[in-house]
Amino acid sequence: MKKSFVISMLVVISLLFAGCDSDSIKADKENVNIQADSEVDKTNMDEVISDYIIRYVNVLHKPTEKQFEEHRIYGIEEKADRITVYLFSIFDGYSFSDGYFKNLAYSTRYVVIELEKKNGQFEVVNYKDSVVSEDVKKMFPTEYAEKALNEKPKDLHDAIKSKVELWLKSQGRMEKTEGS
């Protein structure tokens, strides 16, 4: 009895650890229920994309007080009312701790996101991402994959840093940032 219990526990623990490999995280809208923020301007494609990525990636990390996202679009394909966007995204999640506003969650990912435009508003209908650069060649058309793989996103980091500072100021907070 003890032996079978120990073996069962080892199997369960092994499966838990196997499922925690961040490089293997891939999902689509059917696997994660993402509800759009009611304050997001749904007529602004970039806002809809950022909101979706923040909500999606946030469930993959430990909770943080405030999340920020920046992305670079490498290509857009439109067919009827479907829009497919190929992009690279940076996500940072911050929380207040020890007198600092600390970056406690960080993620970069390549994303293919499909949107539908209905009555002038964008809605995410499909989402696929990878944190593995080799997957870009499978996910993106060749011309977009080459751009995405040959670019360094320092300006996206700088844009997030600016967003963080503006947000802190808007909240009347004086903490310095750490980890950005």
Percent of sequence in beta strands: 25-35%
- Number of separate domains: 1
Low-confidence stretches: 3-30
Structural class: alpha+beta
In N-to-C order, the SSE pattern is HHEEEEHHHE
**Total number of helices:** 5
Major sheet size, sense and barrel closure: 5 strands, mixed
What coarse outline follows from CA principal-axis ratios? globular
Q: Write down how many β-strands occur, each being a DSSP E stretch of 2 or more residues.
A: 5
Summarize the entry for a quick read.
With 180 residues, the chain is of the alpha+beta class. 33% of the residues lie in helices and 34% in strands. The chain has 5 helices and 5 strands, in the order H-H-E-E-E-E-H-H-H-E.
Question: What this model shows, in words?
Answer:
This is DUF4468 domain-containing protein. Residues 1-18 form the signal peptide. Keywords: Signal. This protein is of the alpha+beta class and 180 residues long. It has one domain (2-178). It has five helices and five strands, in the order ααββββαααβ. The chain has helices at residues 2-18, 45-58, 136-139, 142-149, 154-170; strands spanning 66-79, 82-97, 100-118, 121-130, 176-178. Strands 1, 2, 3, 4 and 5 form a five-stranded mixed beta sheet that branches. Strand 1 and strand 2 (82-97) form a beta hairpin. The chain is globular, with a radius of gyration of 19 Å. 23% of the residues are buried. Residues 3-30 have low confidence and may be disordered.
